[in-house]
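Journal club prep — side note

Before the paper discussion, L.F. wants everyone to see what a predicted structure for a comparable chain looks like in token form. Sequence:
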Amino acid sequence: MGHAADQETASATAWRMLALGVGAQTAGTAFVSAPAFLIPVLHAERGMPLAQAGLLAAAPTVGMVLTLIAWGALADRIGERWVISAGLALTALAALGAVVVPGYAALGVFGLLGGAAAASSNAASGRVVVGWFPRGRRGLAMGIRQMAQPLGVTVAALTVPWIAAAQGTSAALVLPLVFNAVLAILCGLGLVNPPRSPRQADHPAPNPYRAGSFLWRIHAVSVLLVVPQFTLSTFGLVWLIADVGLDSVSAGATVSVAQVVGAFGRIAVGVWSDRLGSRVRLLRWVAVAAAVTLGLAAATDVASLRAAAVAAFVIATIVSVADNGLAFTSVAEAAGQRWSGKALGAQNTGQFIAASGVGPAVGALVAAVGYPIAFCLVAAAPLAAIPLVPRRDVHAEPS
């Protein structure tokens, strides 16, 4: 009777921790993605070159790259609670700096600092899922956790463009400021670190990177699959306006719908992987679909099929975010609890190094050859990922 009650309490605690983790990463993502939605204002209304606007949008991502592994190592050492809450508080302070200090240079600097702080929830919230949920439910739980990224983008897409147009670029960061401050308090008060077994606490864990190539291959696949994801999230809005011919309100609504559906798609993919008993098999299918849907978006642009282009964009966006939960769960399960923070930090570091180059590189590519050819060239990244996906899953610890 007592054991059953303990199990029921643990399950309730797990879902509560997951909710806090989702909220934390949504808040951090809202800040990190906000500069990308300033591009239409900066480029069309204020004359900033597209490559330069893309560089400004990439500043928070560059900041994340600098600190992800350090935040993950700190979470491995002291637990998730204070890593997440402190990181969100620092993100809120960076947003405050961007609001108060005028100028594009300040926006870039505080974007960099805020991204460095927001990296805390990226590394640590994945540990929360793996630590509190059994293996057979981790796909579902990590899919829910991975909703945070598209939900954070959705918050930015719905608020940043029109606030920036009406009140200026600094005012557009007030909402991310408040969002991060509130979640910092909630996580500081409510987050509970996952329990560790005595064996995990007393025995040093072997380095999983020396045990085989699995983690290295998953990292490489994720780096390649992040290219279409960030291409669409960074330039999707301006593509829908400039090439497809939507007005800014309709384009923003399309981006928001795609991100929300993509968020629920991550849950569906996570549940599918639980039932299939494999993360990597689905990961390979996602890579194939990413290449196909980018080609479809390019074709609809060339053919000037507005409705088809909108549909292709939504489908491509959904597919482009579907791999993250699968890869994160694979990395955490293969690394084990004592290494999962560092491994998830390394996972995100590789992704965001690639992502930080997407803004300026794809911006310059679009300026040189146009969106259709740029999309086709970007599709080469998921094509290259297909043969790199491992054939079998790896688990460091028993379920």
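L.F.'s comment for the group: The longest helix spans residues 2-33. Keep this in mind when we get to the figures.
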